[in-house]
Amino acid sequence: MRIIVALLICAGSVLAQQIGNPTTQQGVIPPRGVFAIRNARIVTVSGPDIENGTVIIRDGKIEAVGATVAVPAGAQTIDGSGLSVYPGMIDAGTNLGLVEVPQGANGTVDTSEVGDLNPNAKAITAVNPHSAHIAVTRVEGITTTLTAPTGGLISGQATLINLLGTAPKEMAVVPHAALVINYPRIGGGGGGFGGFQPPANLSETLTANERRLQQIRKMLRDAEAYGRTQDAYAKDKSLPRPDRNVVLEPLVPYVRGEQPVIFRADREAEIRGAIRFAEEMKLRPIILGGNDAWKVASLLREKNVPVILTGVFSLPSREDDAYDTLFENPAKLQQAGVRFCISTGDSGPEVRNLAQYAGMAAAFGLSKADAVKSITLYPAQIMNVADRLGSIETGKMANLVVTDGDLLEIRTRIKYLFIDGRPVVLTSRHTELNEAFKNR
User: Does the domain at residues 89-389 carry the CATH identifier 3.20.20.140?
Assistant: First the structure.
């Protein structure tokens, strides 16, 4: 009996250490289990806050949440007194995991393929699960990102990943979440705060852009025809068997409107053009960038086109714009009834600052509640995973952040973190460097 008691005490001590000050072996994912966060303020996002409640996590899912929830026997318990529980933050506009050292180490950059039309390029195959940027990002409460390829006209397929795992497939929430198209730009570099100036020859630019759009249009129509051919053969095996086309095949669900297409577009003319093009091709568009989205808010609302805003921290694009034009962009879209979310739009190092982007929007007209939703529930809704992520509800994936203050305040610290119901180590390259040099 004494031996059993001693073993239970040791096991309890180890579990407490894993939760309170978790440590894990490099390359080993912490196990799922049964956890209870008690006496905490729970910001459900999808409903009213629970001032003193409990969240139960079992096998990666939220089993129960509420003010009167009983703690199951054997659950590993966290005392949340004075703490707040939020859903994990989601950045829906990054290249996280595809870029390690952007300059001087080309072998660590895998964001684009050769050529302009690469719908078969899949970000999920290139994600580096051991990137230093991932740990740096998740310890700030970002649990999920949309990681997208760049370059060319059709960049490839973005992937929605959790920031925990030893292989891309372990991290994948939606392996092929959206097709990414770079809508041809109207302007280039030069004057103004944001470095934009009209092209020297607008007529030539528009002509060149139309040629680029025609390239995209032709490939999408070829994919439509390819899909019809495959369907016909599936129904009637007496027909000649069509050749498989690995470039067109990934496009079929997008041209059929089954999955969304992300258009990178910032300027008003580009956003309008992307919406027209999507309507012509019967696509489900999402605008990524959207610096001028406030100018076309009525059109975005009318067409029900969501926007992933990446420029909230940026300076205005034009010299005659007010300094807070982009700071106020989210509030203006919210007032106009446009679906939107906030993203850093970063390749990796600055994704960790996502909460500050939302905080800036809250300081310039967006309500605090909507600012939190803009980095939790809204991106989940836009990416069609709100049934699994984005809020604290029974049955959803247990991506949870436990803080000692307001999520949007820069002074707030993350005390506990769960991704897919697993307690995550709160260490990163930054914390390691801090420990190494703080006493020098």
Answer: yes
Work out the average pLDDT over 114-125: 96
265: exposed, middle or buried (Cβ count in 10 Å: 0-12, 13-18, 19+):
buried
**Per-residue model confidence as pLDDT tens digits over 18-51:** 444 444 444 578 899 999 999 999 999 999 999 9
Alpha helices in 290-407 (DSSP H): 297-303, 329-336, 354-363, 368-373, 377-382
In this structure, are residues 405 and 397 in contact, taking their beta carbons and an 8 Å threshold? no
pLDDT tens for 337-358 read: 999 999 999 999 999 999 999 9
Q: What is the Cα Rg of the chain in Å?
A: 23
Each domain of the chain, given as residue ranges in start order, spans 1-88+390-440, 89-389
**Superfamily of segment(s) 1-88+390-440:** Urease, subunit C, domain 1 (2.30.40.10)
pLDDT in tens, 230-278: 999 999 999 999 999 999 999 999 999 999 999 999 999 999 999 999 9
Q: Is 98 exposed, middle or buried (0-12, 13-18, 19+ CB in 10 A)?
A: buried
Q: Which amino acid is at 70?
A: A
pTM tops 0.70: yes
What's the CA angle centered on 307, arms 304 and 310, to 5 degrees?
175
Cα dihedral 202/204/206/212 (nearest 10): -150
